[in-house]
Design brief:
Elements (H helix, E strand, L loop, with lengths): L1 H11 L3 H25 L1 H12 L6 H21 L3 H19 L4 H17 L6 H15 L1
Helix pairs in contact: 2-4, 2-6, 3-4, 4-5, 5-6
């Protein structure tokens, strides 16, 4: 029984940044790969946005460009741990659009993505991040204003 208590205590002592790194890299990998697929054949990407994705209110070319921009930018921010919460909010919005309008039956996958992103949204990038460095450097100035 003591071994179980020690194991539990050891697991609970794992620093958050150790957990945040794979979460950040995992989410980044998902969206970075989607961007790479779009870049391989841009014409096919446009056709998918016309025929299959059909995001309402947005012209297909604009929606494709917007999705690609998000999928290229947000993963870089996540890997760096820069503006992590902002990047996650954008990706959660994109996931909601995909879930609602494009692939409503893919909810188990989108639920997994969202769970990873919600941890990052609530707890941030962790100590091994540009966000952490900036907050330590400039955070007291922000709190004073």
């Amino acid at each position: 029984m003591n071994q179980l208590i020690r194991l539990r205590a050891w697991l609970e002592s794992v620093p958050y940044w150790v957990l945040a790194l794979p979460l950040r890299f995992g989410v980044a990998w998902i969206f970075w790969n989607a961007a790479q697929v779009k870049l391989i054949n841009w014409q096919r990407t446009i056709e998918l946005f016309i025929d299959e994705y059909r995001v309402p209110l947005l012209p297909p070319e604009f929606a494709a460009s917007m999705a690609l921009s998000i999928e290229l930018t947000a993963p870089i921010l996540l890997v760096l741990g820069l503006l992590t919460r902002v990047a996650v909010l954008v990706l959660l919005g994109m996931t909601a659009v995909i879930q609602t309008f494009v692939y409503p039956d893919a909810w188990p996958t989108h639920l997994q993505w969202s769970a990873m992103m919600l941890v990052l949204l609530c707890r941030g990038a962790g100590a091994v991040s540009v966000d952490h460095f900036l907050w330590r450097r400039y955070g007291t100035r922000l709190q004073a204003t």
